[in-house]
From TrEMBL:
One function term, GO molecular function aspect: nucleobase transmembrane transporter activity
Compositional bias per record (Polar residues), positions renumbered to this chain: 1-11
Region of interest (Disordered), residue spans: 1-30
Protein name: Purine-cytosine permease
Domain of life: Eukaryota
Main location: membrane
Localization: Membrane
Length: 555
């Protein structure tokens, strides 16, 4: 797709000598057509809101091809940016810093996918009554769905080289984008706390395996956890902070070199479960509780739908701020190929591990154990236990710093670009992760899946829908870079806020609100219709917000 300046467009209405055409009526008509075409192109460059229709089916086909694989990158430095809206972290990524090849993007996803919460999420499906194949199907369907907004949102980051907080200025306004960034960032802060708690628990288990168990009473004001648990939580927190102070490049390096180690250790855990369960048959012997005679006979869809939503919600956070990473991709082909391989393929494989090992625990230990840290702690032999726990900690670090730090750090930078750097934002994020007290959230499977994962997906689904609708359907994949960094450009709207976007977001969240209240406070009864809507919260919010935004912004 060509980006033409006003000067170039004007020159196209002239002949080779630079003299205006117009010797004949035919020339006048040609000139008029070219001038109209030029105005349309100028409108697009300036962030115009009309779709430019292709002149033929062949050009539409060519445009689609460019979009997915070969569309030229359009990153450039903004002209006269407002100093309050830009710093070194928020400038469009220069070509020399675009170091992410397809293999790097895939490695990023391997590091993200192989994590304790992802294992726990897959294993929880067995705990909720699914057989191994029902659990795998649920995860695969969910990730095939979330891959779509993931790739769509990644496009703008690759094309323009700017992070998520800057890109959202086009849809929500220059100031309004800070609200969206903070909402996304708060979710990530909670996730950072959850992952840090898991890593700290693994570190404590490793210490006890080497030295011996602690004996400590629960502390009431800490929510019932012991001082050793809290201490190792803080030690693991500090380890991650030391990695974060090195910046975004350290994240790429950690993901690249941890990926093969994590694959090897995950395979070893699967082999162990196969050996202890005496074969693949017993290993996958846990049957569905939804079949005839099962404890939950006929209730499969009641669990399947919210489980799909929870799995989509699991990655819905990253589907928003994926531009924070794809801005470093070498091309659209690199980000697309890396994501298409990294997310659905490795998530399905790792979910099989989580489901299979959890299913095997019913044979090995006589009970369903979906917590991988507890499973590893029961492995006989010091060496396997130590290696497994080190793998769990490496998996936690590789996921946490990439998925749960970049977004809130950038959101904080967006609040005050001149005062907050990425490193400062990352440190503040880490501090907020402590405040969230994640051990309370992980106290039950139902709270983890049905309240936390589905609850925040009801908020993030509408945001994703509005951003995608604005970029693809309203702006036809064309943004005005200068306006993204200006208080007087086309994205300033009403004093920096695009109220139509926020109204569309509220409309998207509203249908899921009664169901969320019922889930968080069971004593508050709501009609079954709203409970059903809540079980599909991300999908409802995503779809409703798109239609609402298009209706509100129709010219």
């Amino acid at each position: 797709m060509m980006n033409l300046s006003a000067a170039n467009l004007t020159s196209r209405t002239r002949d080779g000598s630079g003299r205006a055409k117009g010797a004949s009526s035919c020339g006048h008509r040609a000139n008029a057509r070219l001038t109209l075409r030029g105005k349309r192109q100028i409108n697009r460059v300036e962030g115009g809101r009309r779709l430019v229709k292709s002149s033929s089916s062949s050009s539409s086909s060519s445009s689609a091809s460019e979009f997915w694989l070969t569309e030229p990158l359009a990153a450039r430095q903004p002209v006269n940016p407002d100093p309050s809206l830009i710093n070194e972290d928020f400038k469009p990524t220069e070509e020399s810093k675009r170091t992410f090849a397809a293999s790097d993007v895939a490695a990023l996803w391997i590091g993200l996918v192989i994590s304790v919460p992802a294992y726990y999420l897959a294993g929880s499906l067995v705990e909720l009554g699914m057989s191994w194949w029902q659990g795998i199907l649920t995860v695969f369907v969910s990730n095939a769905i979330v891959l779509v907004p993931m790739i769509l949102n990644a496009h703008s980051g690759t094309k323009y080289g700017v992070p998520f907080p800057v890109l959202t200025r086009a849809a929500f306004g220059v100031r309004g984008a800070t609200i969206v960034g903070v909402l996304r960032g708060l979710v990530a802060c909670v996730w950072f706390g959850i992952q840090t708690w898991v890593g700290g628990t693994s570190l404590l288990t490793l210490y006890e395996a080497l030295v011996g168990p602690f004996s400590a009473a629960p502390i009431a004001f800490l929510g019932g956890i012991t001082m050793p648990q809290f201490s190792f939580f803080m030690i693991f927190w500090l380890i991650q902070v030391l990695v974060l102070i090195k910046g975004i490049e350290s994240i790429r390096i950690v993901e690249k070199y941890s990926a093969p180690i994590l694959i090897g250790l995950s395979t070893a855990l699967l082999i162990w479960a196969f050996w202890r369960a005496n074969g693949i048959g017993p290993m996958l012997s846990a049957t569905s509780q939804f079949g005839p005679g099962g404890a939950k006979e006929g209730q499969f869809m009641k669990v399947f739908l919210p489980s799909v939503t929870a799995n989509v919600g699991f990655w819905s956070t990253l589907s928003l701020n994926i531009p924070d990473f794809t801005r470093y991709a070498k091309s659209q082909k690199a980000q697309l190929t890396g994501q298409a391989i990294g997310l659905p393929v490795f998530m399905a494989l790792f979910s099989f591990l989580g489901v299979a090992v959890t299913s095997a625990t019913t044979v090995i230990f006589g009970q369903v154990i979906s917590d991988p840290v507890e499973v590893v702690s029961r492995i006989q032999g010091l060496t396997p236990t130590v290696l497994s726990l080190i793998g769990l900690m490496l998996a936690t670090i590789s996921t946490n710093i990439a998925a749960n730090v970049v977004a809130p750090a950038n959101a904080l930078v967006n609040l005050a670009p001149r005062k907050v750097s990425f490193t400062k934002g990352a440190f503040i994020t880490a501090l907020l992760g402590i405040v969230t007290q994640p051990w309370r959230l992980l106290s039950s499977t139902e709270g983890y899946i049905f309240t936390w994962l589905i609850g925040y997906s009801a908020l993030l689904g509408p945001i994703a829908g509005i951003i995608i609708a604005d970029y693809f359907l309203v702006r036809d994949r064309t943004l005005d870079i200068d306006a993204l960094y200006s208080t007087s450009g086309s994205y300033w709207y009403s004093n920096g806020y695009h109220f139509k976007a926020f109204l569309a977001m509220a409309i998207g969240v509203l249908p899921s609100l009664p169901g969320f209240i019922n889930m968080a406070i069971p004593s508050v009864a709501v009609p079954k219709f709203f409970q059903t809507l809540y079980s599909c919260a991300w999908f409802v919010g995503f779809g409703v917000s798109i239609f609402a935004y298009l209706a509100l912004t129709r010219e």
